[in-house]
Amino acid sequence: MIWLKCNIMFLSVFTDTLLRWVLRSGAVVSALVMAMIMLFLLVESWPVLQHVSLARFFTDSSWHPLEGTYNLTPILSGTLLASMGALFLAIPLGIASAIFIVFYASPRSALLYRRLIELLAGIPSVVFGFWGLTTLVPLINQIHPPGASLLAGILVLTLMILPTIALTAYAAFSAVPNEYMRSAAALGLSRWGMIRGVVFPAARTGIVAGVILAAGRALGETMAVLMVAGNVVQYADSLFDPIRTLAANIALEMAYAMGDHRAVLFVSGLMLMLLVMTLAGLAGWLGKNRYA
What we know:
mainly alpha; two-stranded antiparallel sheet; single chain; 77% helix; 11 helices
């Protein structure tokens, strides 16, 4: 009997140690992959960074790499406007969808609604782009030509990132312990009072994680935005103006880019990577300190 207990304890300690090392190894591999991606982008960007100052990427007269002008500001502006517009629409819609599924819908309706959101999450980006090009762009063109515009890009991106926010918020709300809800009900709080005062603070980490994932996808989305946004390098004065994003710019020009032109496209990729990292850090800080 004592021998059996010793074996069980040994196996338990061995399993815990093995799992700890597996998790550590996974974390190290993930960090190394990120570091290698950053290193690759830096190495490929270095030929142009050696003789072109960083300020020129924001102060040159235009984006004409073959003529030696490398202004990325209009493209960066289009990327941020499209992503921020999509997040502005998708965050409240996604969180509202999760609240409906968890707290208001009947079990059958909640299951059906969640399955529809999961189906939306599985649609390839090119399908969203094709739908936007053939349906959404003509509709916008009837309101204000040319149709392919910042507005079309925002609406398509909203549909693409909505499932990410909704499903991560659903998982975060579902993970809130039932004891919290019962305690809030015992205090006489209404359903919305419980959601606002108890569920939101308890689920904020999961919600922030969903927003980070959605923002990363919005910033890096290529094909769908390329098909509906117009791909004109300019500052958007209105929602109906065509734009070009960093990811779409790389996809459009990498096939024929050479020399400094190719290196500048890697600078675009490096800028996109830094944007996502900055956003992740900011969102993590907000999620940690908002309710501290």
